[in-house]
């Protein structure tokens, strides 16, 4: 006989690094939230789109394969080469929901209406170093309009974001959508005579406005400054005259939209592109007002500059303004949960023609965390009614009870473990968070009755009542078999 082969080690039962498992309540709460958001998108005339989780690396565009494998942010692999057809294609899991939209808009451009309004929800994957709160798989919730250059499309998307937040459960007053325009910043750069070689450096310093203030940004734009540790930070090298329009832009937020727009016009000076951007903001503000979206919900705010390099026109960000406690017990605002804007050139890589587009993306996990922080999600889930088994030969009777409850719209299941130990059946029901257990032994069956046990009330009595009250079994009632559904409905109600 051949020698016994060495036993293979057992695989580790652990989630891969950077990934996580979602159990019942997490999945249910996310689905309920996304369903409410989808209803908002549907009312605005947007259609759902589900694209493949896999795209060609070429179609994704942003990431390209390395010598051996694509490793710049995507999970990718190479298809097996076809004989006589050269090397196989590189495929990758989608890293967002916008790149697949670009491919769909180009591939089906003769079949889709123009403009094309779509929303998409689903997981995306990024091959990045995981960390606290940073996962390699997460959910996105997007809505986009492809094919319209009108600022009415931007106003619609921006207004729809406010409606989506409220539809998800965020109350008015607990959020603000801040609106800006890439063209205004371009105009400021033009007025400041900032060249292309300095633009990125200027953007980086502008992004520090919230941390270091006007004086700090002025130093960073010109000669530099010392940070809190005393280290010297090199400045961009602009003159005071060049820095002036940038600082005027950063401090242009007025008491209302009209004042902000007036200040922005001064900041862009004679720049035509800057003036165009301010005009677009004014038009969007007027349309939002006509939709009933006042400045308490959506406001023009020049401080929204992060990520502007990706956009070509209006840009916006949704911020939740209520306070939560951080891990150290300190109060802080919840912060940003969504953003978007206009990004023309979405389909151009495929067709060679510019195709205007505007859209939004909601951070699903962050928004769900916000709802939990407000007590609007995360409440204890309710499991199914459990039909216990006293006699395995009567399994058909127990299945009939569960079917009757299901047909009445009540979630129910039959215990499928070993029925010998009845206590284990009730322990199972507790672990399932079951509100009710159904009990019918041979005696009850002969008399045509069932025992209906209110497990929630029973747990409360066990915790609070006296021994005599507990022995009285007020949480368990006997009813005719024909009244099973009515009694369970009464308890659940």
TrEMBL record:
<dbReference type="InterPro" id="IPR041715">
    <property type="entry name" value="HisRS-like_core"/>
</dbReference>
<feature type="binding site">
    <location>
        <position position="306"/>
    </location>
    <ligand>
        <name>L-histidine</name>
    </ligand>
</feature>
<dbReference type="GO" id="GO:0004821">
    <property type="term" value="F:histidine-tRNA ligase activity"/>
</dbReference>
<feature type="binding site">
    <location>
        <position position="126"/>
    </location>
    <ligand>
        <name>L-histidine</name>
    </ligand>
</feature>
<feature type="region of interest" description="Disordered">
    <location>
        <begin position="1"/>
        <end position="20"/>
    </location>
</feature>
<keyword id="KW-0963">Cytoplasm</keyword>
<comment type="similarity">
    <text>Belongs to the class-II aminoacyl-tRNA synthetase family.</text>
</comment>
<dbReference type="GO" id="GO:0005524">
    <property type="term" value="F:ATP binding"/>
</dbReference>
<dbReference type="Pfam" id="PF13393">
    <property type="entry name" value="tRNA-synt_His"/>
</dbReference>
<dbReference type="InterPro" id="IPR036621">
    <property type="entry name" value="Anticodon-bd_dom_sf"/>
</dbReference>
<keyword id="KW-0547">Nucleotide-binding</keyword>
<dbReference type="GO" id="GO:0006427">
    <property type="term" value="P:histidyl-tRNA aminoacylation"/>
</dbReference>
<dbReference type="InterPro" id="IPR006195">
    <property type="entry name" value="aa-tRNA-synth_II"/>
</dbReference>
<dbReference type="InterPro" id="IPR015807">
    <property type="entry name" value="His-tRNA-ligase"/>
</dbReference>
<dbReference type="InterPro" id="IPR045864">
    <property type="entry name" value="aa-tRNA-synth_II/BPL/LPL"/>
</dbReference>
<dbReference type="InterPro" id="IPR004154">
    <property type="entry name" value="Anticodon-bd"/>
</dbReference>
<dbReference type="InterPro" id="IPR033656">
    <property type="entry name" value="HisRS_anticodon"/>
</dbReference>
<keyword id="KW-0067">ATP-binding</keyword>
<feature type="binding site">
    <location>
        <position position="140"/>
    </location>
    <ligand>
        <name>L-histidine</name>
    </ligand>
</feature>
<feature type="binding site">
    <location>
        <begin position="96"/>
        <end position="98"/>
    </location>
    <ligand>
        <name>L-histidine</name>
    </ligand>
</feature>
<dbReference type="GO" id="GO:0005737">
    <property type="term" value="C:cytoplasm"/>
</dbReference>
<feature type="domain" description="Aminoacyl-transfer RNA synthetases class-II family profile">
    <location>
        <begin position="1"/>
        <end position="384"/>
    </location>
</feature>
<keyword id="KW-0648">Protein biosynthesis</keyword>
<protein>
    <recommendedName>
        <fullName>Histidine--tRNA ligase</fullName>
        <ecNumber>6.1.1.21</ecNumber>
    </recommendedName>
</protein>
<keyword id="KW-0030">Aminoacyl-tRNA synthetase</keyword>
<keyword id="KW-0436">Ligase</keyword>
<feature type="binding site">
    <location>
        <begin position="310"/>
        <end position="311"/>
    </location>
    <ligand>
        <name>L-histidine</name>
    </ligand>
</feature>
<dbReference type="Pfam" id="PF03129">
    <property type="entry name" value="HGTP_anticodon"/>
</dbReference>
<dbReference type="InterPro" id="IPR004516">
    <property type="entry name" value="HisRS/HisZ"/>
</dbReference>
<feature type="binding site">
    <location>
        <position position="144"/>
    </location>
    <ligand>
        <name>L-histidine</name>
    </ligand>
</feature>
<comment type="subunit">
    <text>Homodimer.</text>
</comment>
């Amino acid at each position: 006989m051949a020698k016994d082969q060495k036993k293979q080690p057992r695989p580790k039962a652990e989630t891969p690094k950077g990934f996580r498992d979602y159990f019942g309540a997490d999945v249910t709460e996310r689905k309920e939230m996304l369903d409410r958001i989808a209803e908002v998108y549907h009312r605005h005339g947007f259609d759902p789109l589900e694209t493949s989780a896999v795209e060609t690396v070429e179609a994704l565009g942003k990431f390209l394969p390395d010598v051996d494998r694509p490793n710049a942010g995507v999970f990718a692999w190479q298809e097996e080469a076809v004989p006589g057809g050269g090397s196989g294609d590189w495929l990758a899991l989608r890293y967002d929901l916008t790149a697949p939209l670009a491919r769909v808009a180009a591939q089906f451009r003769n079949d889709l209406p123009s403009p094309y309004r779509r929303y998409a929800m689903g997981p995306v994957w990024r091959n990045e170093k995981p960390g606290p709160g940073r996962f390699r798989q997460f959910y996105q919730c997007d809505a986009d309009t492809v094919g319209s250059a009108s600022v009415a499309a931007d106003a619609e998307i921006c207004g729809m974001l406010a409606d989506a937040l409220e539809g998800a459960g965020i109350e008015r007053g607990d959020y603000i959508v801040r609106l800006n325009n890439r063209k205004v910043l371009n105009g400021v750069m033009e007025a400041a005579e900032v060249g292309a070689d300095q633009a990125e450096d200027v953007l980086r310093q502008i992004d520090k406005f919230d941390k270091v203030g006007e004086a700090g940004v002025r130093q960073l734009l010109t000669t530099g400054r010392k940070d809190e540790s005393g280290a010297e930070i090199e400045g961009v090298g602009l003159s005071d005259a060049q820095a002036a329009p940038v600082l005027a832009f950063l401090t242009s937020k007025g008491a209302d939209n009209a004042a902000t727009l007036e200040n922005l016009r001064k900041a862009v000076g004679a720049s035509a592109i800057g003036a165009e951007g301010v005009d677009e903001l004014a038009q969007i503000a007027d349309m939002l007002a006509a939709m009933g979206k006042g400045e308490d919900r959506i406001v023009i705010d020049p401080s929204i500059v992060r990520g502007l390099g990706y956009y070509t026109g209006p840009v916006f960000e949704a911020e939740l303004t209520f306070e939560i406690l951080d891990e150290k017990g300190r109060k802080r605002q919840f912060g940003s949960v969504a953003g978007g804007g206009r990004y023309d050139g979405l389909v151009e890589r495929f067709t060679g023609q510019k195709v205007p587009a505007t859209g939004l993306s909601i951070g699903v996990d962050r928004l769900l965390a916000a709802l939990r922080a407000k007590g609007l999600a995360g409440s204890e889930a309710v499991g199914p009614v459990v039909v216990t088994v006293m006699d395995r030969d009567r399994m058909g009777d127990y299945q009939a009870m569960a079917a009757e409850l299901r047909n009445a719209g009540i979630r129910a299941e039959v215990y499928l473990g070993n029925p010998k130990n009845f206590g284990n059946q009730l322990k199972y029901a507790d672990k399932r968070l079951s509100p009710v257990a159904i009990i019918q032994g041979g005696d009850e069956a002969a008399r045509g009755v069932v025992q209906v046990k209110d497990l929630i009330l029973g747990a409360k009595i066990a915790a609070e009542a006296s021994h005599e009250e507990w022995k009285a079994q007020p949480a368990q009632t006997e009813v005719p078999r024909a009244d099973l559904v009515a009694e369970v409905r009464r308890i659940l109600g």
